[in-house]
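User: Can you recover a sequence for this backbone? Please restate the input before giving your answer.

Assistant: Of course. Working from this structure:
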């Protein structure tokens, strides 16, 4: 097993990292990090666990460490708030750590890939160009992640001229404590700060090419984002104008036959 660290392990995304990595066949979570104030506390005694299922037994008794005083493993999964992630991830990657980040702070850099394994695993090539001893790999924001997977087979077969996406995003995406209850009860909030911009830039980067530099997809993106009163699970309505004409059966076939790299392995 390969030892890994989780940064921001007490947060909403950090808990998901803990949950998934604790069942991973290759990785073992050997250290977990949160803010300095929790240093030394056992995970199970201090985390406000909000996910389904209990706290994984292999992590429950680990003490929380702090980035000021403790050194993470070489492989680091980061769920830090973006304003903290920027400096921390820069420092760690320059010191030789392999940083896999959920934060947006490095996503738009020249040689930092935003990777969705089913869509653009080849973009990992970009890490060779990072002037760091280690590297940073990011994932997209949640609404982009769900969008680019169905777009990939469409793009490969028919080309994409334009997409229009309307999201209905769950409360989980706003973290904890998230959206004030009186703002969302009996309501839909028709705006999520910076979300529409993220969808545009990230989907074009992910569905674009890397050829010594990133060449974003040339299609147009229109996005409208809404927060809805659902606990977990985003929904998106997507209209796609393809470059080639396509019949419904060809369209369906492109989905049925699609296999990303993870499915092929
Ligand atoms: N929520 C989502 O669905 C979602 C989706 C995509 C991306 N993201 C991104 O993922 C990141 C985490 O989001 P989140 O919603 O999980 O945030 P969160 O619930 O606020 O959790 C933040 C985590 O970072 C730790 N932290 C805060 N300040 C710190 C410091 N100065 N030094 C070290 N650790 C510190 C917190 O520790 P304490 O508990 O000790 O304060 C906590 O473990 C963000 O960059 C966010 O934009 C979130």
């Amino acid at each position: 097993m390969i030892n890994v660290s989780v940064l921001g392990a007490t947060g909403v995304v950090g808990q998901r990292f803990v949950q998934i990595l604790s069942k991973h066949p290759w990785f073992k979570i050997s250290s977990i990090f949160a803010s300095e104030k929790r240093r030394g506390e056992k995970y199970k005694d201090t985390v406000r666990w909000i996910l389904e299922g209990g706290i994984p037994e292999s992590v429950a008794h680990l003490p929380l460490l702090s980035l000021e005083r403790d050194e993470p493993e070489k492989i680091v999964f980061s769920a830090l708030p973006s304003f903290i992630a920027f400096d921390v991830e820069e420092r760690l990657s320059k010191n030789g750590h392999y940083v896999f980040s959920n934060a947006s702070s490095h996503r738009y850099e020249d040689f930092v890939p935003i990777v969705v394994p089913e869509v653009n695993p080849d973009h990992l090539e970009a890490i060779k160009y990072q002037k760091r001893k280690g590297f940073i790999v990011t994932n997209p924001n949640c609404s982009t992640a769900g969008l680019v997977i169905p777009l990939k087979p469409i793009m490969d077969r028919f080309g994409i001229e334009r997409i229009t996406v309307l999201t209905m995003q769950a409360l989980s995406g706003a973290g904890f404590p998230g959206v004030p209850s009186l703002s969302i009860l009996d309501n839909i909030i028709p705006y999520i700060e910076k979300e529409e911009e993220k969808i545009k830039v990230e989907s074009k980067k992910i569905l674009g090419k890397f050829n010594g530099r990133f060449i974003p997809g040339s299609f147009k993106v229109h996005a409208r984002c809404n927060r809805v009163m659902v606990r977990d699970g985003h929904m998106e309505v997507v209209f796609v104008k393809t470059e080639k004409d396509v019949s419904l059966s060809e369209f369906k076939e492109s989905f049925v036959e699609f296999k990303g790299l993870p499915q092929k392995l």
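That completes the design. The pocket of NAP is lined by residues 8-14, 34-35, 38, 67, 79-82, 84-85, 102-104, 141-142, 172-173, 175-176 (CB under 6 Å).
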